[in-house]
Amino acid sequence: MSTATPPKTTGPLARREARLAWGLLLPTILSVSLVVVLPLLSIFWISFKPIGLADLRPPAPVVRESLRGRPEAPGDPADLQYRLRNSSQDKPILGVTLTDTIPEGLVLGELDPRCSLDDATLTCDFGDLEGGQREEVEIPATVEAAYFENGIDADESEPVMTGSSDNILINGQFTLDNFVRIFDSDEFFTVLWATVFYTVFGTVGALVVGLFAAMLLNKSFKGQGFLRGLYLFPYVAPVIAVAFTWVTLFDPFSGSANALLVQMGIIDQPINFFGQRPLALIMVTVFEVWRYFPLSFLFILARMQSIDTDMYEAADMDGASPFQQFWFLSLPQLLGILSVLFLLRFIWTFNKFDDIFLLTGGSAGTRTLTVSVYEQAFAVGNIGAGAAVAVVIFCVLLVFSIFFLKYVSREEGL
Amino acid sequence: MKFLRYGYITGPVIGALWMIVAGFTIAVAMSFATGQAFRPNLLLSLVWGALLWPATMRAAGIAGPALAALLLVGATLIGVGPLIVGAGTSTVTAVICGLLLAAGTIWPVRLMLQDMPPGALTRHIFEHAVIRFLTGTGYVIFTAIVAIPFYVMVMTSLKNQQQLVQNPLDFSIDLSRGLDLFSSYVELFAQFNFGSYLWTSTYVSVLTVLITLLFSVPGAYAVARLRFSGRTAFSRSILLIYMVPMIVLALPIYIAFSMLGLRNTIFGIIVIYPVTTIPVALYMLQGYFRGLPAEVEEAGLMDGLTRLRVIWKITLPLSLPALASVSLYVFMIAWNEFLLAFMLLDDPSKFTLTRGVAMLNSSEIPRQHLMAGAVIATVPIMVLFLGLEKFMTRGLTAGAVKG
Question: Inter-chain contact B148–A249, Cβ cutoff 8 Å?
Fold first, then answer.
């Protein structure tokens, strides 16, 4: 009698299942790789390129065509004129040619040596156009009766231009300037410090405040649902609305917070909350805590409500005081969710851009790495340097993610 | 800590501290409501607060609290209460202030210190009293820090320039202005095209939700149910992609869109938004699908349904609540999205709501317009959130630690 052994190879059924799975996943994989993986690769590419905002528009030949001499009757002479220029002031365009259709009834005289006429198609070859170079072609012509009968002007047919310019995005020119530039500046360490401060205190603050909020609401009373909804407001509201509200509230001239503090006699002079050096960084961190404590509160509350109450009753019987119960019973139970939250929030606080950008725009010592990407790429106009900062961010994140997957995936059973 | 554990120490200390909390709260609330000056006095607060303990003891009966309330109102009127009422404040306002103070301290302190003997306390009773004090303080502080910004947002939008400059604290509403109160909103809709932004944001968000679901439901099902090599790697890479910051991607996307001519088009926005939400949705949904009993689906397969029919006829109807949560969450992300809209849209006729509000942040446009814009952006998502809070909180906890 033979013993049954499990199949060692994948059977047709398993293969069909895998095929179906890949089929279901295909749209996601395609779209995500198109918008996530491709840009990630390109950001590495761009970070080694000397490229500015202005380079995004490649140089192109620009042409203007006109028929000069105002021919009015058949037999009048006229001049067909093409004026070309390079749209870029400093980059050459290679192999520029012009192709245009000559309307019926316009008889061209002696052609420019660079041009040739084939039937009604005029082709001119200009070779290379240096940056800022201008060219002009004038062809004497005679106008016949057919030209007036057709009513088609010579400049009605758009001349077609060809020419390849050296596109900085895809050529083989590389440089390390971008990285030198960002690492070399003194500012880099200020930026790094702001990032570390913002990330660490923003994360820890949101966790601690969230823990307090969760403890407050971890009992059933009338209005608990209402309060829970209210405490989620900061997170649910659009960041742009709450950020501008904070800016309005803490405005040094017309802000209510300053008016209130002055009136209560706590300060003498209005404080520029988002414009002073150490204070601005503290304020954006406080904003981060304010905006994201609802999230940690929600998660912690969910975990708290799943803790068995029997344990607390037993502890009560044994004479444990409320603080002891929290310290020795609740906290160890919450440690798992707290560490997961810490890691995730840490990464996302590190990634945060909108909040600081809207509150201070990165001034007064609040420029974090993410704000610096925008600053370099769009304010300074050096896309390469912005990409270099983005690469730095990505590398830091990669380290975090490896750490995260090692610890959290065990917690979440992924 | 042991020396604190006597009723005659704990009682006055908690009373005094609570008086400070209540004093500050009422001072802030009254200032914001009337625009007049209210200033808590620390020393007087401590003294008055300490006196609350004997007044609220059980032995004092009804007379204790009543007398305390009377004294508090009187003291506030003549300026020796815990709250100093600024000159120029009417007597009625001062009386209201005193009454609020009495109500906000006597009753809570009585609750906090109930069952507390005047002598030595057990650790249990002491800590319970402290916890009740901390809980009360927590409710007040949390509610204040959450509510004040939203209150300021709404009230500022109802003012006019002159009122704002005159007294930035005065948030009282001048009802005699009638419909003129909403002039900022009227101007935003009439001159700044906010109606069209509202519509753009709505359909962009709805389309984002639909496209996201279309892509992520099959994907999540495959990851949750089907066996194929590379499944673990795939579900891990979802998490990793979930962690790539948008600002890193925004730069190449900006360049690519500039070259393809997709910048400044709604189409470009609709192409890019779902991709940012698909990983989140996939992650949330696969967690839910895993929790569904596989037996039901197997029964369907045995009865001759194909996998796709199983998804359509069994899995999807069973996971309607999860779909609702995910849809709401994705809608919220799309509605609140700012960075991409800010970078990719320059043409004021194509703005989404967040981009439109960002446009209002200039020194030439008055503050109340900016706040009115903020209110317009906030109200729809809040209404949706309050109406479907159950789904929302579930959606948020399902996989959304993303900010």
Answer: yes
Whether residues B207 and B136 share a domain: the answer is no
Q: Which of A25, A267, A338 to mutate to test the interface with B (most CBs of B within 10 A)?
A: A25
pLDDT band at B202 (very low <50, low <70, confident <90, very high): very high
- The pLDDT tens digits for A349-386 are 898 888 999 998 888 888 888 888 888 888 888 888 88
Q: Return the percent helix, strand and coil in chain B, to nearest 5.
A: 80, 0, 20
Residue holding tokens 């998804």?
B311
CATH number where B248 lies: 1.10.3720.10
Region of A307 on the Ramachandran plot (φ > 0 left; ψ -120 to 50 alpha; else beta): beta
Shared domain for B254 and B110, answered yes or no, is no
Assigned CATH topology for domain A177-412: MetI-like fold (1.10.3720)
d(CA A368, CA A374) in angstroms, rounded, equals 10
- Can you tell me the ipTM of this complex? 0.89
Residue of A nearest to B283 (CA): A414
CB contact under 8 A, A32 and B392: no
B28 inside 8 A of chain A by CB: yes
Is B28 close to A260, i.e. CB distance below 8 A? yes
List the domain boundaries for chain A: 61-165, 177-412
Give the separation between CA A83 and CA B151, rounded to whole angstroms.
63
pLDDT of residue B26: 87
Chain-chain contact of B236 with A290 (C-beta, under 8 angstroms):
no
The structural architecture, per CATH, of the domain A61-165 is: Sandwich (2.60)
Q: Is it the case that residue A168 has pLDDT exceeding 70?
A: no
Q: Which of B131, B336, B370 comes nearest A244 by C-beta?
A: B370
